[in-house]
Amino acid sequence: MFPIVIQMIMDKDKSKNLMSRIREGDKEAHRKFYDIYRDNIFKALYFMTQSFYIANEILYRVFEKILYGNFDILDNLNRFVWKMTKDSVSEYAGDYRKTLTQHKEKEAAATIDISEQGKAFDEVMWRLGQKDREIILMHMLFDYTFQEIADDIGFSVSKVEKRYYKAIKMFKEKL
Fold first, then answer.
1. Are 112 and 46 in contact (CB under 8 A)?
2. Exposure pattern of 138-174 as b/e (b: 16+ CB <10 Å)?
3. Distance, CA of 12 to CA of 55 (rounded, Å)
4. What is the pTM of this model?
């Protein structure tokens, strides 16, 4: 369903330049930022919420916060985007607990054509624990190093690496 190998790689100078242009109101910079990050943010949201509809709804909130918010960006744009994505899920869950049930009902009624490989990928992702899913998402979609992941979630680097490679092994066995 989702190719897992997409990486968001922007060097610091390019990302700072892009965000400066966005802050100045450059519409082309807005489009470029959206094109670069849309798919990976959606994938992360989907795996955090387990809902296509909720992920879609939160996606627009994430971009609104990033593009129009008043805050300083971290040195690493990918880390900043990950934090904004994660925070948006928490805010959504806190603000709209009742609507989660409604979205799940809509999704159950919808039919989405998913390849066998996509189904197998989803199955492995759901078997992983929350922290393991975060490790996979942070490393593969948001280009975090193992050290950055360890710092962010409070594990040792070796524990992050072991959990990452164990999850990759599960993917290889299933796919």
1. no
2. bbbbbbbebebbbebeebeeebbbebbeebeebeeee
3. 28
4. 0.60
Q: What angle do CA 170, 173, 175 make, to 5 degrees?
A: 100
Residue identified by tokens 């807005």 is: 30
What DSSP string runs through the chain? ---S-------HHHHHHHHHHHHTT-HHHHHHHHHHHHHHHHHHHHHHHS-HHHHHHHHHHHHHHHHH---PPPSSHHHHHHHHHHHHHHHHHHH-HHHHHHHHHHHHH------HHHHHHHHHHHHS-HHHHHHHHHHHTT---HHHHHHHHT--HHHHHHHHHHHHHHHHHH-
pLDDT-derived band at 73 (thresholds 50, 70, 90) equals: low
pLDDT at 100: 54
